Amino acid sequence: MQLNTILLKEFKDEMNTTRKFLSSISEDLFEFTPHEKSKKYGELINHMLPIASWIPAITQNAELDWSKVTPPGDLNSKAAILKQFEANVVIGTQALKATNNDQLSEYWTMRNGDTILFSGTKLTAIRRYVFNHTIHHRAQLGVYLRLNNISVPASYVASADDKLF
Q: Which of 25, 51, 21 is nearest to 132 (CA)?
């Protein structure tokens, strides 16, 4: 069984759900924050945006050092955000298609300079830092939407705004 086939299906499903959430955003709220310790709405969206494109950094390398990465600039329009999201999904999809079980079993390290943040298999890194990370921030975005009376899309079955039954 090819693990990348399983990952591709899950990636597609999670990105489809994330697309619904990003399609619900409002440019008028980019400065909104629900709490002083929370990211602004626009910052949260821009933080979520590149996650899908991290897959080749995992599959094609032995490590990632965040101290050597220049973060992308923030996008401030819904159209630009959705366009970049789609491009990032293509990058992630291509990287998953190009990997195999042996590569996914290799160890990978994420660090920030001398501080090791994660060391484990590439499979675990993809599940944790791409899939689960996306789900985590998508849930946060759902709270931001709810607090601003914007319909929250269904994630897996239904939401209070998107009822199936």
A: 51
CATH number of 3-147: 1.20.120.450
Contact between residue 91 and residue 55 where contact means Cβ atoms under 8 Å apart: yes
Per-residue pLDDT of the chain (165 residues; tens, 9 = 90+): 899 999 999 999 999 999 999 999 999 999 999 999 999 999 999 999 999 999 999 999 999 999 999 988 899 999 999 999 999 999 999 999 999 999 999 999 999 999 999 999 999 999 999 999 999 999 999 999 999 999 999 999 888 887 766
Against a cut of 0.90, is the pTM above it?
yes
The ranges assigned to domains in the chain are 3-147
